[in-house]
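Exercise 7.
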Amino acid sequence: MRKAQRDVREVLESGDHLIFSLGMVDVEVEGVDLAVEMPVTPRVANSRGGLQGGLIATLIDVVAGRLAVDGADEGHSSATSDMSIHFLAPIVEGPARAEGRVLRRGRRSVVIHVDVRDLATERLAAVSTISFTVLAPLVD
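Solution. The predicted structure, written as tokens, is:
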């Protein structure tokens, strides 16, 4: 494992990574492979009071990335190769919940679908399909 990978792993394990400061937490949801919720606060809202679109994209990428790497062979990692997001409605009250499902897992690529909802209104706010390239272990 390279130094950069070790550094990131240490930050994640310490709980000091950006995703933790955004309040992202795993939740159990029947029928999905992984669900993560994030609160909507003034700190992460846009000028209209909704969760910033870039943070919705980050939430989607975190869920999908975790699913992509979870099924990879030992030492392999993944990298986002394509992401399509359709923003359907604002997430104003929250929390936002991203629900991910693996659509296809191959030896070299993984395709994930993620729905994002505003739980306060039960409204579907965004849908996304994300493709990942599966990467062989890095050699020092």
